[in-house]
Design a protein that fits this description.
single chain; 279 residues; alpha/beta; D-Maltodextrin-Binding Protein, domain 2; three-stranded parallel beta sheet; three-stranded antiparallel beta sheet; 10 helices; disordered N terminus
Length: 279
């Protein structure tokens, strides 16, 4: 049997023998990329931590940068065969030709977007996180159900955050409801509330950019979420590479690589413990 360089790379980068799903993905990708023998990946401009560290996706550091290289490896591409381009978030969602093979930029999979572009299988499912403010009475709250239930929470009325708090967290104090998330952020900044809940990506952004002294207490198990978002790699509609990308993601899930990357950059490694609702 003649083994191509790409197939050999797939086996070495994914730690598998030359059989199974990663090799199938490598074979599948041949001749289907924007530039033959290379994989062009897009991300945001700029790209923020913890998704991409120091706005440098080529470093492979950050959850999405590491995920992109893992997918590339499962498809048989070496790191030196990956090219990066930048797009705005909204630009990439527009219909038409793309200057990338896939775009990784925290795109939630939804039916409206799928009318004009294609998504891969999910590479990440969001969890719900609790945000407090340093210097407040909730700063040192433990990531347990009993401790969190004592806090005064705020939420935007009619949102999944309100539903999650009522149905899952079940705080002892009545919720303070606001018109939108901007007002919830203003409320915690002004110490009107002790805590709020956002999906983890929004919580990471809020504590990094929007809330001075914002701090994530922890994240709830994904299975506790009511309507979790699934992130997918974005591709041009009808991209023949979609099946290959899906196969690569499936192999990375099966061998635990995606879970390892998530733990490093969004879980334990990012200082976001999992909340124990039963304690």
């Amino acid at each position: 049997m003649i083994i191509s360089k790409r197939l050999l790379a797939a086996s070495l980068l994914t730690g598998t023998m030359l059989a199974g799903s990663s090799v199938m993905a490598a074979e599948c990708a041949d001749g289907k990329t924007l530039n033959d023998g290379r994989l062009t990946i897009a991300t945001g401009n700029p790209a923020y931590a913890p998704w991409v560290m120091d706005d440098d996706p080529a470093s492979g550091k950050g959850f999405e940068a590491a995920t992109a290289y893992a997918v590339a490896g499962a498809m048989g591409f070496e790191a030196s065969e990956v090219d990066w381009v930048r797009t705005s978030f909204d630009e990439a969602i527009q219909p038409g030709e793309k200057d990338f093979d896939f775009n990784i930029q925290q795109y939630s999979i939804n039916a409206d977007r799928e009318k004009v572009i294609d998504f891969s299988a999910p590479y990440y499912t969001t969890a719900v996180a609790v945000v407090v403010k340093e210097g407040s009475s909730a700063e040192n709250v433990e990531p347990t159900g009993s401790a969190l239930r004592k806090l005064r929470f705020g939420a935007a009325a009619g949102t999944t955050s309100q539903t999650f708090l009522n149905d899952v967290v079940k705080p002892e104090q009545d919720l303070l409801l606001y018109d939108d998330n901007a007002n919830v952020i203003a409320a915690i900044s002004a110490n009107q509330i002790d805590a709020l809940v956002f999906d983890l990506p929004s919580a990471l952004f809020a504590t990094a950019v929007q809330i001075d002294g914002g701090k994530i207490v922890g994240q709830f198990p994904v299975e506790a979420s009511i309507e979790p978002d699934n992130f997918g790699l974005l591709m041009a509609e009808g991209n023949p590479l979609k099946d290959c990308v899906d196969e690569a993601i499936a192999s990375l899930k099966a061998d635990g690589k995606l879970a390892e990357i998530e733990s490093e950059w969004l879980g334990d490694g990012a200082g976001v413990p999992v909340i124990d609702l039963d304690k």
